[in-house]
Specification:
Elements: H1 2-14, H2 18-81, H3 86-114, H4 118-121
Length: 128
């Protein structure tokens, strides 16, 4: 009888109870969730860094283009001033700059409409 009692005690000691199993399962789940969150955080950091690099690069490009356009405008005004008074030189340069802006806006607007489907250009109204 003592032998049978020892076997039962060993079996109980070898097989953990439900609370221990639940604790281990929750611990495993929490480790998995922590590792998934860490992977998500790493991928988000990489995406944000890439986006910031892109924004900085575009900002620098735009700043360089604005400076170049300003220098070209000043050169055009100085060139025109050789034959015309200052006010006429600035007026002609401003008018040319304004006309270039209107033409480029119309070009961008028409090219953006080419990519949209026909039903969206009618603002959802049927063509019939």
């Amino acid at each position: 009888m003592a032998e049978q009692h020892l076997l039962t005690t060993e079996r109980v000691a070898a097989s953990p109870d439900w609370s221990t199993l639940t604790e281990r399962a929750l611990d495993d789940v929490s480790r998995i969730v922590r590792s998934e969150i860490h992977m998500l955080q790493t991928s988000i950091e990489t995406a944000v860094e890439a986006r910031i690099d892109s924004v900085v690069t575009r900002s620098m490009t735009i700043a360089a283009m604005v400076c170049g356009a300003f220098c070209i405008l000043c050169a055009a005004v100085l060139l025109l001033h050789q034959w015309l008074p200052w006010w006429q030189s600035f007026g002609i340069a401003g008018f040319c700059l304004l006309a270039t802006g209107v033409v480029s806006r119309a070009t961008v607007k028409s090219s953006s409409q080419l990519g949209t489907p026909r039903h969206e250009m009618n603002h959802g109204r049927s063509s019939a």
